[in-house]
Specification:
The structure holds 2 protein chains of 2 kinds.
Chain A: H1 10-26, H2 29-38, H3 43-52, H4 70-83, H5 89-102, H6 107-114, E1 120-122, E2 136-138, E3 140-149, E4 156-161, E5 164-169, E6 174-178, E7 187-195, E8 198-200, H7 204-240, E9 242-243, E10 246-247, H8 252-281, H9 285-310, H10 322-334, H11 339-349
Parallel strand pairs in A: 1-4
Antiparallel strand pairs in A: 2-3, 3-7, 4-5, 5-8, 6-7, 9-10
Helix pairs in contact in A: 1-3, 1-4, 4-7, 4-8, 5-7, 7-8, 7-9, 7-10, 8-9, 9-10, 9-11
Chain B: H1 2-14, H2 22-31, H3 53-62, H4 74-87, H5 90-102, E1 107-110, E2 126-130, E3 133-141, E4 151-157, E5 168-174, E6 180-185, E7 194-205, E8 209-210, H6 216-230, H7 242-252, H8 259-287, H9 295-316, H10 342-349, H11 359-370
Parallel strand pairs in B: 1-4
Antiparallel strand pairs in B: 2-3, 3-7, 4-5, 5-8, 6-7
Helix pairs in contact in B: 1-3, 2-5, 4-5, 4-6, 7-9, 8-9, 9-10, 9-11
The chains are: A alpha+beta, B alpha+beta.
The structure holds flavin-adenine dinucleotide.
Chain lengths: 354, 390
């Protein structure tokens, strides 16, 4: 097996800089906090990202994409994680996109994928890893899917039912936003009562599997971006906050905790890069993704929890963005398989049966 | 690249590994610049990027050529050599590097003392000038492989009136010189892997001083930086370290499996794989000429994972985990963390967070130099060494 490329290329660095600029401008913590309260997506920001090409990087040009790869998409995810930006990136640009790409021989799937304007969202619970909701086709699609990420922003729902994917106009489903632990990635329950849909040719479970692998791999990058941002703002705060006549960041108990966190982020970043590279080359995908997801999810939670704790009382307030990171980190840990589920998934893959 | 292949082919043509004595082959390899290609021409290298070494190693291994047993002479290769290259005179480089690399002259590190470990710069071993020589007296401790060493890198105090960092000078010490007394020191593993080294009026010629008088701390930093790179910085395959041994036990002994141990094993497997990838990433950055600070994370994570994985293995093994293979005070030729039985590995791994700088010291370094957190108050920094409380 040749080694994965784990560096950031110059092109990826440039891409990061432009996405970061945009987010600094348009997704400052105060505005994200306001969106959190309302539980709504920032669709203007989403369109601005689309104009940059940041939402279709991994897709080939003939499918309306940028002809780059999941490596670049992962870099965008890192920045979106760092800003906890309320855009339908995971549900649409990653999950639905990967499912449709898997079945792109189908004309309708290809048409939807290439339609830059429409937001397609994969109708699975965000917590899904190895099973999906039981939806039936009976005339139209029938059944309910709970806690679907980004569904409220959907124009078209990509619905796994009876072994196939079905494309359903969002207006034909009942989409009920729910209060989410992480309101920066809004959730909705989606109910189908015989909604007419277009069936996509090819295996639905295979397409969902491809989507969940891509989703879990890219989510790991998002988690690394979030963890790094939590570390950075915590370090900044501890440098300037004084107690006992010295910066609290000069107390060794805190320095050592942050050094440990940094060390785990170093490992998490390597694992996330490996997953993005594996999604790009198609080599060793399931192992790379589950390694990355089980580590990065936990590291993001550790970083966010340290961020709250080490900010003291201010870390507990609604005004300070620390809680946005905590909520995103905890919800992301549950999303697309908990670390424990990914470890269980690894067991047979690496010949360590229970 | 193809030029490098030609050089290897020429070496092999002139010195057939099947018929050449090992030391002769290694010397010829050094002289051909194929020892460490990133070293300068004439000193065993070709001035090439470090990354190109792996091609040479692969080609020579494929041709059945002997290697220099790098694990046996790790202190020389990893610490003494880069220091001599960076701070030595031409004469010193020419004298020391070739037999160091071939393994004919093994090295040890005379740094730590009973009163100076983490606070290495506080060391008390004295070197006094006497004509063209220095006369060195003091005690070193925890000196790995001193019993096999021909030479040592040594730091001693040449001026006690200066603050601790300023009064140090760095030397090369002949381990066969009169006054060098190496006494075995037994470890918790039972082995006598390290030593106490008593230095009594040891004469070191001034020509064996490395760097300027009083510049010993700067020179030592080169050594210590390379020590941290050397630990955990080598390419390893998946399951290459301690985790691979635990995984093997898991596969071969299904009757030992429990649900609790399973999740711990998988969690360690994940982190070990991530550590391996982080090492790979670091080397890719180095090869691209943009090394990040991630090297300091390697040793910290390596020590933690080696300890946790070896602990899991003795627990898994139950009755066998209660046993031990050998408590005799052996004098090992080299240290092999992965060698011997699980009980030994569990105990030896405890050293991983102490040797080469403790994990606590490493965390402080990461926090201050990488994260930029405020430094600890340093009350001893500007005080003459002789006035420090002891
Ligand atoms: C197996 C092994 C092989 C070794 N080989 C060599 C060798 O070949 N040559 C050589 O020169 N040395 C060698 N050493 C020595 C090693 O470098 C020292 O043991 C190490 O630097 C710690 O020093 P110390 O033992 O004096 O502990 P101390 O410095 O006394 O530390 C005691 C404890 O206090 C902690 N501590 C100390 N200062 C601080 C601080 N500022 N903040 C927080 N915690 C602190 C330490 O982490 C440690 O837990 C070896 C050690 C081992 C275990």
């Amino acid at each position: 097996m040749t080694d994965p490329n784990l560096r950031y290329t110059d092109i990826e660095d440039d891409l990061r800089a432009s996405v970061r600029d945009l987010l600094a401008d348009r997704a400052a913590p105060e505005s994200t906090l306001a969106r959190f309260e309302a539980g709504e997506h920032d669709l203007d920001l989403w369109r601005a990202l689309a104009e940059l090409g940041a939402t279709t990087l991994h897709l080939p040009e003939e499918l309306g994409g940028q002809g780059a790869s999941y490596r670049e998409t992962a870099v965008v995810a890192e920045e979106l994680g760092a800003a906890v930006a309320p855009v339908p990136f995971l549900g649409s640009a990653v999950l639905a996109s990967a499912a449709l790409w898997h079945l792109a021989d189908d004309d309708d799937a290809r048409a939807l994928l290439s339609d830059g304007g429409a937001v397609a969202v994969l109708a699975v619970p965000l917590s899904t890893w190895d099973s999906t909701a039981e939806l039936r086709v009976d005339g139209g699609v029938v059944g309910t899917v709970r806690s679907v990420a980004d569904a409220a922003a959907a124009d078209v729902l990509v619905v796994p039912a009876d072994g196939a994917l079905h494309l359903v106009d969002a207006r034909a489903a009942r989409i009920t936003p729910v209060l989410a632990l992480d309101q920066t990635r809004p959730l909705a329950d989606v109910e189908f009562t015989g909604a007419p849909g277009t069936q996509v040719a090819g295996s639905g479970p295979d397409a969902v599997r491809a989507a969940l692998l891509a989703g879990a791999g890219i989510l790991a990058a998002e988690q690394v971006g979030l963890a790094q941002r939590c570390l950075d703002i915590t370090v900044d705060y501890l440098r300037q906050r004084h107690q006992f006549g010295r910066p609290v960041g000069s107390f060794q108990a805190l320095k050592h905790r942050l050094a440990d966190l940094w060390q785990r982020i170093v490992l998490a970043r390597a694992a996330a890069r490996a997953a993005a590279d594996a999604l790009t080359t198609g080599v060793d995908v399931p192992v790379s993704v589950s390694v990355a997801q089980s580590l990065c999810a936990a590291v993001a939670v550790q970083a966010a929890e340290e961020c709250v704790q080490l900010h003291g009382g201010i870390g507990m307030t609604w005004e300070h963005p620390a809680h946005l990171y905590l909520k995103r980190a905890k919800a992301s840990e549950i999303a697309l398989g908990t670390p424990g589920r990914h470890r269980a998934a690894l067991a047979p893959l690496v010949d360590l049966p229970g | 690249m193809s030029e490098l292949r030609e050089r290897v082919a020429a070496l092999l043509a002139e010195h057939d590994p099947a018929t050449t004595e090992r030391p002769d082959f290694l010397r010829a390899r050094f002289d051909a610049g194929l020892a460490w290609v990133h070293f300068p021409v004439g000193l065993g290298g070709l001035g090439l990027p470090r990354a190109e070494q792996s091609l040479v190693d692969e080609l020579l291994a494929a041709a059945g050529a002997p290697d220099n047993n790098p694990r046996r002479i790790g202190i020389g290769l990893g610490m003494a050599a880069p220091t001599i290259l960076a701070h030595g005179t031409d004469a010193q480089r020419a004298r020391f590097l070739r037999p160091l690399w071939t393994g004919e002259e093994p090295w040890c590190q005379l740094f730590s003392e009973p009163g100076a470990g983490s606070d290495l710069a506080a060391l008390a071993t004295r070197a006094r000038r006497d004509g063209d020589d220095w006369v060195v007296t003091g005690q070193k401790v925890w000196t790995s492989s001193a019993h096999n060493a021909r030479w040592a890198i040594l730091i001693a105090r040449t001026d006690p009136d200066l603050p601790k960092h300023a009064g140090l000078t760095y030397f090369v010490c002949d381990m066969t010189a009169p006054g060098v007394d190496v006494r075995p020191l037994r470890q918790l593993t039972g082995e006598a892997e390290f030593n106490e080294v008593f230095l009594t009026d040891v004469r070191i010629p001034d020509t064996d001083r490395l760097g300027d008088i009083g510049d010993g701390w700067r020179v030592a930093r080169t050594t210590l930086m390379n020590e941290r790179v050397a630990i955990g910085g080598r390419p390893i395959p998946r399951e290459g370290g301690m985790i691979g041994l635990v995984a093997r036990t898991w596969r071969e002994r299904p009757e030992l499996r429990t649900a609790e141990a399973h999740d711990r094993l998988l969690a360690l497997w994940v982190e070990s794989e991530a550590l391996r990838l982080a090492g790979l990433r670091l080397r890719q950055e180095l090869a691209a000429g943009s090394p990040g600070p991630e090297g300091s994370a390697m040793k910290l994570a390596f020590a933690r994972l080696a300890q946790q994985a070896s602990a899991l293995e003795v627990e898994l093994l139950a009755e066998d985990g209660l046993r031990y293979d050998d408590w005799t005070a052996r004098r090992p030729e080299m240290v092999d963390y992965l060698g011997r039985e699980p009980g030994y590995r569990y105990l030896r791994a405890k050293g991983n967070s102490i040797e080469g700088g403790t994990s606590e010291i490493l965390r402080t370094i990461i926090a201050e130099r990488i994260l930029g957190l405020p430094v600890e108050p340093r009350v001893d920094k500007d005080v003459p060494w002789k006035d420090l409380p002891r």
